[in-house]
């Protein structure tokens, strides 16, 4: 069972300009996120007084809102100020994760048509005391039967709240008694895990799937940038399950989980069944860069 930090019982949550207690933080039943999962979101992690990749996250949030034709969208500076206000109210400067949600807003009556939205967006800043969701010791995965959305159906470059595709894969992982599920694209290539991007190491080269049927994650990009800075060979290409099974190392990436070694996939041991040396090196480098390049919290 997932452990919850007892400090989270007393957190204050930002909802549409007001800080409210956990018990009182809520949106209307007419809000678009309730009516149809019509919202976009970002996950932010706080490292020793800094927020990793804050500006890129805000840019992606704005791009997702634009792709979904949201109107009366708050500016990135207004959202930035709301995040800082929330962190200050909770006295959070390290070891925290922020779920930032922007919905299409409240409707005048129930229904999915955006014409029913006439009052602008709803903004939610939920900051919790939360370590990475996965252990550095590694995880086990299975392959989900649920396929990852193709851009011809619902483009994963829109970071939307309609996560049933991923949730169905997560259910498969839960039933199998493992930590996560690898999702394939419609052509049978590895796309990502249900909640993270995925990497493989083969003969000293770091490989990751093209960001076609998967989210082009910001931690994913950070790893690719680190590899280039460190002269570590890194490529994006189609990757099959066989290549995952026979990889020297594998790991997942994401703001919620950072870099996590994958030790087993569908009962096959990855490499030697322990976190790999290159994975461990990249974990250290990632945490250093996440803090170094993070935006300083102004309090």
Can you describe this structure?
The strands form two sheets. Strands 7, 8, 9, 10, 11, 12, 13, 14 and 15 form a nine-stranded mixed sheet that branches. Strands 2-1-6-5-3-4-16 form a seven-stranded antiparallel sheet. Helix 5 crosses helix 7. The two termini are 35 Å apart. It has 299 residues and is an alpha+beta fold. The chain has seven helices and 16 strands.
N-to-C SSE string, H for helix and E for strand? EEHEEHHEEEHEEEEHEHEEEHE
Oligomer type: single chain
Give the biggest beta sheet.
9 strands, mixed
Structural class of the secondary elements? Answer: alpha+beta
The outline comes out as globular
Q: How many strand segments?
A: 16
Fraction of residues in helix: 25-40%
Percent strand? 25-35%
* SS field, number of helical segments: 7
List low-pLDDT spans: none
Q: Span from first to last CA? A: 35 Å
Cα-atom Rg, whole angstroms? 19 Å
Question: Average pLDDT value?
Answer: 97
In short:
This protein is α+β, with helices and mostly antiparallel strands. The chain has helices at residues 32-36, 54-67, 76-90, 164-176, 218-229, 241-245, 277-292, and strands at residues 12-15, 18-21, 39-47, 50-51, 96-103, 122-129, 139-143, 180-184, 190-193, 197-202, 205-208, 234-236, 249-254, 258-265, 268-269, 295-296.
